[in-house]
Description:
- It is a single chain.
- This protein is of the alpha+beta class.
- Helices cover 32% and strands 29% of the residues.
- The protein folds into 2 domains: 1-84, MutS, DNA mismatch repair protein, domain I, CATH 3.40.1170.20; 86-180, 3-Layer(aba) Sandwich (Trna Endonuclease, Chain: A, domain 1), CATH 3.40.1350.10.
- The longest helix has 13 residues, at 87-99.
Amino acid sequence: MIRAEVVQDTIIVWNIExxxxxxxxxxxxKPLGIPKPKTADFDxxxxxDIIEAVYLVEKGRIxxxxxxxxxxxxxxxxxxxxxxxxxxxxYLVYRDLRERGFTVTPGIKFGSDFAVYKLGPGLEHAPFxxxxxxxxxxxxxxxxxxxxxxxxxxxxxxxxxxADSSSGKVKYLLFEWWRA
Length: 180
């Protein structure tokens, strides 16, 4: 079992071989100090996003320790919910996209929750950026236009994922822009 550790607000896989294995397996995490790894042959610990760590614990791929004690999936979820805004909804979307065979990475540089790949980072540019909403959230026309313009500028499809944590279901709205 691969061991990861909570260090401040970060989840780290210290064993380099284990980190390489996770990266090869599904482009999980980022090697420390290497923003865009070309291959999995890096010599650095692997930094996991909390959502990735929860998913990998749920799948039985890693164990996460904090202060020397192994956290259960429930404890890790509780930690994530306390420390990350809208964690449950974002996790529902992340897990759904991963289960559909996509590679999902943080989308902060695109002003969204996720960047989503069909193949993976380094193999293609992410074709989708995904913003997570709840069924009760409103979205303004201005927000749609702003997000659509950004997505068009970076050549991505703007997608809204509506995550219903009470039912565990996710619905997607994909926007495409045409020029007249």
